[in-house]
Design a protein that fits this description.
This protein has 322 residues and is of the alpha/beta class. The chain has a single domain, classed as Divalent-metal-dependent TIM barrel enzymes (TIM Barrel, Alpha-Beta Barrel), CATH 3.20.20.150. It has 12 helices and 8 strands. The chain has an 8-stranded parallel sheet with strand order 2-1-8-7-6-5-4-3. Helix 8 links the parallel strand 5 and strand 6. Helix 11 packs across helix 12. The N terminus is likely disordered.
Length: 322
């Protein structure tokens, strides 16, 4: 499994958020009653991605995220690190209790829509995932995207049902920059048009945008900012997967690094303008979730905690500057 497919197929749920919206009825951003003009949003982490090297169980994963200073732990897939490693998901109520015991929440889960599956069965499996996320307390179901043009329209029909179903539970369906049919910002606008439901929105991933396309995140954000309800924070050193910078080999000659070293880096070492991204998001009323994904994995859990803490602190400073 490549790093790029990990997000789509992972059975763990991830990301941190400032708030738990009770109902999402077509709004473009999730409400945050505790925020103010001067208060900074809370920051979460994609725990299983940051600590995947160590295959932590749920308790150890949450303890590590807490030690790094995060407010929420997004464990994509609606499960936990232990669920992905051992193949047996924990009860959602148990996960929620473990989060609460540490003063944490989890607000984002990954939605894995079954591929090449009859519509009714795909809908049933998708609704079951959304129901599980709701029990955990998650309010965003993140679909990593799709790459099969022939099956894209049926795939979007399942997502439309998910948006309708999730609306009543207060779970918003989202997608973001990824590989396949999610590379560019214009492609994300196509997803919005095809799904065509107010409870289907976008997360912005500037690191992936650079990784896959080499495009300028701030210019690309101009095209979609009003539709963005979450920011996946990671940096990127340069385009690797698709478009190349001038003078570099064309697409197909150099495969991406399977370890994702170009995006699993420390903030400030790549090309993402973090204050600029937040400033532009806020200019359109953004009040959604922000969580750290990209972080260098150290040789030990403690070293990785330190790296994750450093990225969180860098992001706090960036938000303050904005």
């Amino acid at each position: 499994m490549t790093r790029r497919r990990f997000l789509v197929s992972s059975s763990v749920a991830a990301a941190a958020a400032a708030v738990l919206p009770s109902k999402i009825l077509g709004q473009t951003t999730a409400p945050n009653p505790s925020s103010s003009a001067t208060a900074l949003p809370k920051i979460g982490c994609y725990g299983p991605r940051i600590f995947v090297k160590f295959q932590l169980g749920t308790d150890a994963l949450l303890d590590a995220a807490k030690a790094a200073g995060f407010d929420s732990v997004e464990m994509l897939g609606g499960g936990s690190g232990a669920a992905r490693v051992r193949g047996k998901p924990e009860a959602p109520e148990a996960i929620r209790d473990k989060l609460a015991a540490r003063g944490l929440v989890s607000t984002v889960g990954s939605l894995v829509v079954p591929e090449k599956t009859p519509h009714a069965e795909a809908v049933a499996q998708t609704r079951a995932q959304i129901t599980r996320m709701n029990k955990i307390g998650q309010n965003y179901a993140l679909c990593g995207g799709f790459s099969d043009e022939e099956q894209w329209i049926p795939f979007c029909k399942v997502l439309r049902d998910a948006a309708e179903f999730g609306q009543d539970l207060g779970v918003q369906i989202v997608t973001k920059h990824h590989h396949g049919l999610n590379n560019t910002t214009v492609e994300l606008l196509g997803w919005l048009q095809q799904v065509n439901h107010p409870n289907f929105r976008l997360f912005f991933d500037p690191g992936n945008l650079i990784y896959y396309t080499g495009k300028d995140p701030l210019k690309q954000l101009d095209l979609i900012a009003p539709h963005v309800t979450g920011w996946v924070a990671k940096d990127c050193a340069g385009p690797i997967y698709q478009e190349r910078m001038s003078g570099q080999p064309g697409f197909g000659d150099a495969p991406p690094n399977p370890n994702g070293d170009e995006v699993m880096i420390q903030f400030g070492t790549g090309r993402v303008n973090f204050p600029g991204v937040y400033r532009k998001l806020k200019s359109t009323g953004f009040n959604g979730v922000i969580y750290v994904e990209g972080t260098v994995a150290g040789d030990t859990v403690e070293a990785t905690i330190a790296a994750a803490r450093a990225n969180r602190e860098y992001l706090v400073k960036a938000l303050s500057q904005a």
